[in-house]
Amino acid sequence: MEITTARAPALLHMNIQLKNLNNFAANPKPQIQLPLHRPKYKLPLKPVRIKPAKKSKQKPVTTTSDILRLMDGLKLAIPIDIYTSLIKECTESGDPFKAIELHEHIRTSGIRPSLYVINRILLMHVSSGCLEHARKVFDEMSVRDFNSWAILVAGCVQNGDHGEATKLFVKMLSDKELENAGADQMGFSVPGILMCVLRACVCTVDFELGRQVHGWLWKVGFSRNDALSSFLISFYGKLKHYEGAERVFQQVECRDTAVWTSRIVNCCNDDNFVGVANVFKEMGEEGVKKNEYTFSIVLKACRRMGAIRYGRQVHANAMKLGLASDSFVQCALVDLYGKCGALSDATRVFEFGRSKRNSACYNAMLANYMQHGLCVKAVRTLHEMRTAGFKPREAMLDRVELACCGSGDRGSDELTEH
């Protein structure tokens, strides 16, 4: 059979396929090639910069217990200077548990502390409010100095036990070891203990003991102390012995602000408002510096005698010295102007000292609004006062509520809402 030229290419193609089949059967391990795919291009990741952690401003706190536990764990004896340092830290912190723990550790350590260290322990207990522990330490002391008595007397006054404070002071005066002691042997605490005893005398109305304190002050050489002189003037004034207060004032050589202000307070308490003005004027003539407490007392006297004209002069003096914005002076001015009928001036002072208002200033302005029958303004001031975090007096709150409800003022609705 003849093969035409037309079919030749087809037969040739068939022969090539058969040869490929024979080659496939001869080589049983086929080589499979997977198709290649071009990966998608991705932008390189930006390097992450890790910010260093901010250093904490708070220093690690090591407590007294940690130090004692560490020293005990290492079986090391604690020297007295470390104990003294720990006593100082406990005194400053005022933590009663740490104070008791430290004292017990000292007691069981076998160390015999000196009088100085025992006084430090006494002060630590008083500062921490552990008056019973302080009294126990005091009673167990075989030797005491003036500082020992002073610390315990101050602790009794601080705790409100004024009767016990005066008893301790009388007992101290009979101590033979202190009988002939001078000021140089008594140390730093003489003015402090005398102020505490005088305060206790005022609270117990013990005038005779106060006079003994005054005499003892001359004996030990502290009669020229300005702080004690100021306190003596205040003591005589509070017990209505103004002649004694004036006698002390005349004996003071270098009269400072506190001495003059104590004299002004006595005049105010004695309703001697003319005396207040005269002493205030004399104080200025002497060139003595006036403080915010001085101005607040003088303005209080102006309010009580209704002397608004003189009060304006005092106000101008306070502004000249930069004390008009003080919270105490501001409160006295608001009270003065409001009680004397100058409500616009009181409001102006109240708004001017917005950043330095205190609870007394808010209550004074509330009283002014109630005095003039302005219930809505009183309610708004009351709401502003509460927003600022101050608490109104209960009597003033009842007064505002009663006035608003009784007058049918819509401010009463705001009062009940807030």
From TrEMBL:
Q: Which UniProt keywords apply?
A: Repeat
User: Is Transcription one of the keywords UniProt gives this record?
Assistant: no
Give the superkingdom in one word: Eukaryota
PPR repeat start-end pairs = 79-113, 358-392
This one is known as Pentatricopeptide repeat-containing protein-like protein
> Can you name the source organism?
Salvia divinorum
